[in-house]
Design brief:
The protein is 24% helix and 28% strand. By secondary structure, the chain is of the alpha/beta class. Strand 3, helix 3 (59-64) and strand 4 (69-71) form a beta-alpha-beta unit.
């Protein structure tokens, strides 16, 4: 299996691109009650696994899908992180993980999941795997150092990092990041790409998040 989708219990996608990713996935792992939303979209759906503490999965579905339940009762990590760990453990061959339904409905869940995405390269054995969060409104992915991003021209672009000692020089953005001090979330947001490739040069390795429309 080259790629799979983790479906979270946030805002279920309605736009063509994220729905295409879901409907064409080689495999889908549901976070707890996200199975309910997937079944409403595709009644014949069969996930690889349903991961979480099962607090939002109705008892009848727990019984019907007992063979693919992967319950984890510990509360130190959220269901997305539990699903990520399950994927990396059970499908170490996977090269791409697309996360859907990770945002929307609750701002705290959205912020938490986007923050986790930025930290996963440090917290989990991702290796060279591609991991991103896709919603009806855009795509988010982590970067940890200098890179060239083939994004296309004219896309909305935002950059976040919790490391206020990080300095980034950029090429291909309407407003260069060269003088930005990342001591507040808004500092690198609401930008736009002006070239097919955006080049970022980090002063040192650091967790960071890129969001594009």
């Amino acid at each position: 299996m080259n790629s799979l989708v983790i479906l979270c219990n946030g805002q279920f996608p309605t736009e063509p691109y994220p729905l295409y990713l879901l409907d064409s996935a080689e495999g889908v792992v549901c976070c707890d009650g996200a199975l309910v939303k997937w079944l409403a979209h595709k009644p014949s759906a069969r996930p690889l696994a349903v991961v979480g503490d099962m607090d939002s999965l109705p008892a009848d579905l727990q019984e019907a899908y007992a063979g693919v339940l992967a319950p984890e009762s510990e509360q130190e990590h959220n269901d997305l992180t539990k699903a990520m760990r399950w994927v990396l453990r059970e499908h170490p061959e996977v090269s791409e993980i697309v996360i859907l339904g990770a945002t929307g409905l609750r701002e705290d869940h959205s912020i938490g999941n986007l923050g986790l995405l930025m930290e996963y390269p440090r917290l989990l054995p991702l290796g060279e795997r591609k991991v991103c969060i896709v919603s009806d409104f855009g795509t988010a992915f982590a970067v940890t150092g200098s890179c060239d991003l083939h994004l296309g021209e004219g896309r909305r672009f935002s950059f976040f990092s919790p490391d206020n000692s990080l300095r980034v020089s950029s090429v291909g953005l309407q407003w260069p990041l060269d003088e930005v001090v990342f001591d507040a979330w808004w500092k690198g947001t609401l930008n736009r790409t002006t070239a097919p490739v955006v080049s970022l040069h980090f002063s040192h390795p650091a967790p960071a998040l890129v969001m594009v429309d």
